[in-house]
Amino acid sequence: MTIAAANTTPAPKRIPRRSNLYFVWRGVLGDPVARIAAAIIAGMVLAAIFAPWIAPWPPNEANPELRLMPPGTRGHLLGLDNQGRDILSRLLYGARLTLLCGILPVLIGAAISVPLGLLGAWYRGMGAVIMRVMDVLFAFPMALLAILLAALMGPGIANMMIALVVTLIPYNTRVVYAAACLEREQAYVEAARAMATPDMKILLVEMLPNVVAASVVYSCTIIGAVVITAAGLSFLGLGVQPPTAEWGIMTSEGRSFIFNAPHIAAIPGLAITVLVMAFNLLGDSLRDSLDPRTRLRLVRPAKEKR
Amino acid sequence: MENLIEIRNLSKTFRIRRGGFFTRETVLNHAVRDISVDIRKGEILGCVGGSGSGKSTLGRMILRLIEADGGSITHGGRDLRRLSAEELRQHRRRAQIVFQDPLQSLNPRRTVAENVARPMLNFGMAPSAAARRVDELLEMVGLDPRQAHRYPHEFSGGQCQRIAIARALALEPEFLFLDEPVSALDVSIQAQILNLLQRLQKELGLTYLFVSHDLKIVREFCDRTMVMYRGKLLESGGSDQVYRAPLHPFTQDFLGTVLHLRRDGRWERAAERAEDLEGAPPPIASEHCPYVTNCTHRLDRCMTADPALLPAGDERAVACFLHDPRFAAQPQENRKPIPTGVSA
Question: Which of A14, A186, A196 faces B89 most closely, judged by CB atoms?
């Protein structure tokens, strides 16, 4: 046993506890799939930030004589759209809004639904009320609810994001609530009560780290759906307004030319697919590296190489 | 010997709601019924009984993890059912619990040091002082403090139970409720943990309530034994006496089950027998002896009245009309001993 072994060896230095961040870092780097996913997301974020410097053309500059030209046209790597705008430039600029619309509502939604789910699981009466309200929201299809809210509040990016947040909350809350209900029954929670841990501390210090992993994974997978819903709202004129570059709008604009110039819709559509997949794969890897039970496996090969 | 905890007429009924909003029916589960027992200072009181006999509920009520419905529990003169929030907090320092599943009772996302330090931090100890105390505690339970940065799942079941014991002792309690502390462990590890518990009990002058369904361990480990069935206390007394000469028919059957199990090792038959002991649910909640459906010594009286726990000499007590001088229909010597094997 390790204890006996450690007792006989001359006192080694006490190994400091490694932080969660260390394991996330190690876990993501150790997993080739996650590494690619992380690289894709990092690349997209960098493209969004540095779009004005790396984009070959301004995003809204039209060049009517070259409209509908396919990828590979001289000076326009990814071709031009129906108005003769450079697709690569629009893709780079569009990354800004697309990432913002995909990530920000998920983050805000998680910030609201994690406490809701935890409190609901702990105080059962409150939980019943919260979950019934969520059931009402569930009754609407995600896209329909978002459309309804966005239409009520009027068009605009901020309103669209509020609509997306409200749409997301029931899903994430249910995930957190289910995980928290499982954790609540664990003996360590009862042990925490037996040692006079205040309720809020049980929720935030003991249960939250066990519950949040489920939410992290779920949030990563839902980013794809949010990007697509945001695109749908923009397409309906409720979100981002047309001249602005955004992948969803670009896809829906290219829809009319799908037969004579398929690249207009395909390229931003492909970009959305890659983004969604990258987040999904990263989410899987994050779950493994956040869980102490599986993350040692991720780190061990790295240790042995040394 | 002085009593540390006095339990009087304690009962707990769980209400289990079934069905939907309109077809709601409430099922009552009398987990603990009218139990009176004393836990003496410095003793190990064993509590045996089948599953669902209310053993764990009893201990959890002492710890106020489950609220009792009726009766009283006094601990060192304080009525545990009438504690203010702060008094309850202070009660946590005096009474602690060790759970059955050691791995589950530790937070998987906190290191061993964090798990063990938590109770001390709750009572305002400085983190550095708590860290030193964690090392002390881990050494006390036979673990290497240098392993404290590891996570619970990196330890074996026995080691996790040592960690859980260290955490329970962190607040220097005088009473430990051991809820089947070894039944999830390998037999070889069980002895180590029991030795540790015994050593700690002597060194720290602790009082234990030791719940188990393993009769052999209770016999070896406990000074006194109480036998529970369906939430009722049927028999109590010194472990040696209860095991040598069980008074209550249930105790006789229960011990017989284990003896049978050890004699020819036919597990299936033994399991059947243990199932039989649980029996069909009694038709009425309280107005008869809880063991009446399976008892081979049934008297007419057992169907209509619930025998009270009466002293039976030698610091023993039993709840059975056979041993109640007022109602015993047959003279003691005429009763046949119960065969220990299967008599289906």
Answer: A196
Residue ranges of alpha helices (H) inside chain B are: 55-62, 85-94, 112-122, 127-140, 157-169, 187-204, 215-221, 239-244, 249-264, 267-278, 300-304
User: Of B209, B161, B208, B165, which Cα lies nearest the Cα of B55?
Assistant: B209
* B25-40: strand order across its sheet: B25-40, B3-18, B70-75, B78-79
Give the separation between CA B164 and CA B20, rounded to whole angstroms: 40
d(CA B299, CA B316): 22
Tokens of A299: 């780190």
The string of DSSP letters for B285-335 reads SSSS-TTTTT-TT--HHHHH-PPP-EE-STT-EE--GGG-TTT--S-GGGS
Relative to beta strand B310-311, strand B317-318 is antiparallel
Could you tell me the strand order of the sheet in which B317-318 lies?
A: B95-98, B175-179, B207-212, B44-48, B224-229, B232-238, B317-318, B310-311
**How far off is chain B from A24, nearest CA to CA, in Å?**
14
Q: Which chain B residues are Cβ-neighbours of A188 within 8 angstroms?
A: 104-108
Element (H, E) at B234: strand B232-238
Instruction: Note which residues in 293-332 of chain B have CB less than 8 A from chain A.
Output: none
More confident call, A72 vs A147: A147
Structure-token pair, residue B326: 């007022």
Question: Which of helix, strand or coil describes residue B26?
Answer: strand
Q: What is the pLDDT of residues A268-279, one digit of tens each?
A: 889 988 988 888
Quote the ipTM score. Answer: 0.80
Give a three-class secondary structure readout of B124-141.
CCCHHHHHHHHHHHHHHC
Mutate which of A2, A188, A289, A294 to disrupt the B interface (most B C-beta within 10 Å)? A188
Complete DSSP assignment for A201-240: HIIIIIIHHHHHHHHHHHHHHHHHHHHHHHHHHHHTTSSS
B79, containing H or E segment: strand B78-79
The answer to whether the predicted template modeling score (pTM) of the entire model surpasses 0.80 is no
Chain A 194-253, residues with CB within 8 Å of chain B CB atoms: 194-198, 201, 206, 209-210
pLDDT digits (tens, 9 = 90+) for B121-132: 999 889 999 999
CA B343, chain centre distance (Å): 29
Distance from CA of B157 to the nearest CA of A (A): 12
How close, in Å, is residue B324 to chain A by CA atoms? 40
Residue B240 neighbours by CB under 8 Å, 6+ apart: B219
* B223/B40 Cα distance (integer angstroms): 10
Cβ proximity of B186 and B157 under 8 Å = yes
